[in-house]
């Protein structure tokens, strides 16, 4: 090897710094605009926007975070099996949210799901009255629920990265110590990255434990945090303690997918 040529790790570190700077700017911009942004869902039907619809409706329904994550996962799995042009993506999204409430033992009343979904699609509209439109939409959700169940072969209980992340974060907290750990919002940012990654179909492409590690490692890179007693000495990386088979290349691949999810967000919005 030419001594003047950068090693793969050096190249990776340089690339990492560039994309992390971009990611930090994207998140800062997104967070600053979040409260003032009102999405007009009638003007888009891509998977990112439909996933955002699930999250918005889920928050309005006060659904548990795992319920919302389940709904987003079911949505992506459904359209991985079926043609997106052949179905009303927002009907499927609302139905996934309703079904996820059952799956995660966080029941959401079908009437509440209908009214929240309708009002989110049609801003400022009144709650649905008990008329033809109400019963038509209710029947559509019931039929869509059966369709989703059949399309997914009744396998509607996904394994989430959340429980792995909780375990890993607790272990890291013990390694850092309470004082050092409290200096950085590692847990909050890792969970935020995981939540955002559910907007992308790539959430289906990797095992949940690897996704959890990637979100945490990306957070550590964003804040420039070094894991004590691991990265500072000539030992295995911290993530190999939890997954011996995980390579740096594979970890980088997943982190790139997480960062790429922010590029999928459409620019067109109504304020």
TrEMBL record:
Domain Cyclin-like: 52-150
Presence of keyword Nucleotide-binding: no
UniProt keywords, alphabetically: Cyclin
InterPro entries xref list: Cyclin-like_dom, Cyclin-like_sf, Cyclin-Q_first_cyclin_box, Cyclin-Q_second_cyclin_box, Cyclin/Ssn8, Cyclin_N
Molecular-function annotations in GO: cyclin-dependent protein serine/threonine kinase regulator activity
The organism's place on the tree of life at top rank: Eukaryota
Gene Ontology biological process terms in this record: regulation of transcription by RNA polymerase II
A Pfam cross-reference name: Cyclin_N
Family: Belongs to the cyclin family. Cyclin-like FAM58 subfamily.
Protein name as it appears in the record: Cyclin-Q
Top-level taxonomy: Eukaryota, Metazoa, Ecdysozoa, Arthropoda, Hexapoda
Gene field: LOC107218296
């Amino acid at each position: 090897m030419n001594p003047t040529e950068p090693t793969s790790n050096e190249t990776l570190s340089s690339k990492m710094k560039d994309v992390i700077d971009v990611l930090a700017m994207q998140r800062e911009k997104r967070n600053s605009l979040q409260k003032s942004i009102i999405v007009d869902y009638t003007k888009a039907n891509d998977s990112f926007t439909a996933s955002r619809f699930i999250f918005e409706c889920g928050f309005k329904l006060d659904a548990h975070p795992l319920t919302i994550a389940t709904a987003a996962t079911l949505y992506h799995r459904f359209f991985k099996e079926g043609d997106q042009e052949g179905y009303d993506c927002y009907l499927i999204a609302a139905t996934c949210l309703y079904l996820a409430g059952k799956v995660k033992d966080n029941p959401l009343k079908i009437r509440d799901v209908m009214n929240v979904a309708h009002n989110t699609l049609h801003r400022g509209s009144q709650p649905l009255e008990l008329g033809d439109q109400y019963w038509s939409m209710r029947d559509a959700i019931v039929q869509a629920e059966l369709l989703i169940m059949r399309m997914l072969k009744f396998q509607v209980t996904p394994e989430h990265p959340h429980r792995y992340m909780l375990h890993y974060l607790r272990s890291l907290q013990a390694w850092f110590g309470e004082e050092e750990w409290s200096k950085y919002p590692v847990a909050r940012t890792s969970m935020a990255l995981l939540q955002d990654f559910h907007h992308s179909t790539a959430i289906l492409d990797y095992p949940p434990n690897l996704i959890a590690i990637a979100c945490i490692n990306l957070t550590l890179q964003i804040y420039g945090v070094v894991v004590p007693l691991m990265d500072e000495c000539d030992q295995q990386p911290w993530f190999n303690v939890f997954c011996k088979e995980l390579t740096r290349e594979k970890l980088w691949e997943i982190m790139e997918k997480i960062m790429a999810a922010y590029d999928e967000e459409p620019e067109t919005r109504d304020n």
